[in-house]
UniProtKB/TrEMBL annotation:
The gene is fluC. This is Fluoride-specific ion channel FluC. Na(+) is not transported, but it plays an essential structural role and its presence is essential for fluoride channel function. It comes from Amycolatopsis arida. It is a multi-pass membrane protein. Fluoride-specific ion channel. Important for reducing fluoride concentration in the cell, thus reducing its toxicity. PANTHER family: FLUORIDE EXPORT PROTEIN 1-RELATED (PTHR28259:SF1). The chain crosses the membrane at residues 26-44, 56-78, 90-110, 122-150.
Length: 158
């Protein structure tokens, strides 16, 4: 009898069947260090471009769009320039850019705009942020791919 789907019966404990993954402490340290640096950079941008709740949050938009541009660049570099290296993706992608970007803050900013009576502006802010951020990822990846292709066709300098 399968107790997993029987109401009133305990759910079968399956965690023991899943082998534990060994976490590399160097990778964890790289993620943590990158996260600290990314959060500090975001704090710096926010300090340079402060805003009051219920107003357009330029700092949040800037960090999310620039972070997305950089993740597009990083995706290409990790695959084309640094394949097989274990730390660039965790340090730069998960840590630095994960700590730098803040889409959750964009959601709070939009909610504050709506509560301040600017519902249309909130929708524009959310939609614009997503559209521009996704475009930035594509632009970063395409630009980096084009630059790498251009460098390859030029050949080595003599």
């Amino acid at each position: 009898m399968d107790f997993r789907s029987t109401p009133g019966r305990p759910v079968e404990h399956r965690a023991a069947a899943v082998p534990a993954r060994r976490v590399d402490p160097v990778v964890l340290l790289a993620i943590a260090a990158g996260g600290v640096l990314g959060a500090l950079a975001r704090f710096g941008v926010d300090a340079l471009l402060p805003h009051r709740p219920g107003t357009w949050a330029w700092a949040t938009l800037l960090v999310n769009v620039s972070g997305c541009l950089l993740i597009g660049v990083l995706m290409v570099l990790v695959e084309e320039v640094w394949p097989g290296r274990r730390l660039p993706r965790p340090f730069l992608g998960i840590g630095l850019l994960g700590g730098y970007t803040t889409f959750s803050t964009a959601m709070v900013d939009a909610q504050q705009l709506a509560r301040a009576g600017a519902a249309h502006t909130a929708v524009l802010y959310l939609g614009g942020t997503l559209l521009v951020a996704l475009t930035a990822v594509a632009a970063g990846a395409a630009g980096t791919t084009a630059l790498l292709g251009w460098r390859r066709t030029r050949g080595p300098h003599t």
